[in-house]
User: Fold 5,6-dimethylbenzimidazole synthase from Bradyrhizobium canariense.
Amino acid sequence: MVEFDDTFRQHLRELFVWRRDVRRFRADPLPDGAIDRLIETACLSPSVGLSQPWRFVIVDDAARRRAVIDDFKACNADALNSYAGERAARYATLKLSGLEQAPGHLAVFADKASDTGHGLGRATMPETTEYSVVAAITAMWLAARAEGIGLGWVSILHPDRIHAILDVPDTWKFIAYLCIGYPEVECDRPELEQAKWEQRRGAEEFTLQR
Ligand SMILES: Cc1cc2c(cc1C)N(C[C@H](O)[C@H](O)[C@H](O)COP(=O)(O)O)c1[nH]c(=O)[nH]c(=O)c1N2
Assistant:
């Protein structure tokens, strides 16, 4: 039996407050086994029917990394073109990936074909497979921060292209491409808020009572 005291709860709260999406990484390499350790923690996450549908691809190959970066650049250029005026000017100033600097690259997929869990919980909501993978990524994000490691989620990518670059099974659905490394700075406010793109709102704005 494990008990968590007030001091632990306070630290846990701080972990949530100080977790960031990181796009600016220091050059220092990650310690040996750091990504494997984060994956191991992620695998403790809840999953629909205990299906554990997460699939992780550690991307070390320089040519594959370069191809991912090229895809990001193409998608980000398209995204910039979808804005106009002041919003476009502001978008152009944002740094939206640390792909070039991050010592670790990790792609995460959901295996839509796995029968693990025997379909429990998925019959009416097949998308719970993807939700389970996102739950695992969130756990990894927090576990990383607890070790001083930053994680940045990149979604400005073409899923089909990532599939081809990484040569993974067709039944795997692309969920996330994660940059992993030591952050240049620590902050308790989202970078998009600091850049005046959007501001974080409080719980009262998202809660209804019925
Ligand atoms: C599903 C998903 C996808 C993305 C993100 C997040 C999530 C959950 N975020 C990070 C996002 O911008 C960030 O979480 C918010 O701005 C809040 O900041 P903090 O995470 O609190 O630092 C993100 N950030 C970025 O710079 N490029 C990206 O492509 C994405 N994509």
